[in-house]
Design goal:
It is built from six helices and no strands. The chain is mainly α. Helix 1 packs across helix 2 and helix 2 runs parallel beside helix 6.
Length: about 140
């Protein structure tokens, strides 16, 4: 059991309660988990670009876009293969429902989502303003 599996099943259940059955529930829940991974990936790309003084974004913009697009497609493909194909959804669902420490996994999943959002916002701030948190004293 891991945080991604727990988030996947919980988002599936929340979406099912709000929208009802529509046939794309498994895939939509997988996309939510993949978006979290993409935020981490894009944040890391921003930090790497800032570390090399914005060379990728300024001089090699098509390469930067290609890195982002290929990474995003790869993350989506891997998540789809690991969470939706070949009966994986039912296996993950049984594993999450059989977990005795649901409160622990619920807290960990909320902390993970908060971490991803804050990390992405931090990366965007650093990408725009640099690593100068304090001005001259």
């Amino acid at each position: 059991m891991n945080v991604w599996k727990y988030i996947y099943i919980k988002f599936f259940k929340i979406r099912r309660k709000i929208i009802g059955y529509d046939g794309a529930d498994e895939f939509a829940a997988m996309l939510f988990v993949a978006f979290l991974d993409m935020f981490l990936y894009f944040g890391i790309l921003i930090l790497i670009d800032r570390l090399v003084d914005n060379v990728l974004l300024k001089k090699y913009e098509p390469f930067f876009l290609t890195l982002y697009a290929l990474g995003t497609l790869t993350i989506g493909w891997l998540r789809n293969r690991s969470m939706c194909k070949g009966g994986a959804f039912e296996r993950i669902r049984k594993e999450v429902e059989a977990e005795p420490r649901k409160m622990l996994w619920g807290i960990l999943s909320i902390l993970y989502i908060i971490f991803v959002v804050l990390f992405f916002l931090f990366c965007c701030y650093v990408g725009k303003n640099g690593l100068r948190f304090l001005g001259p004293l």
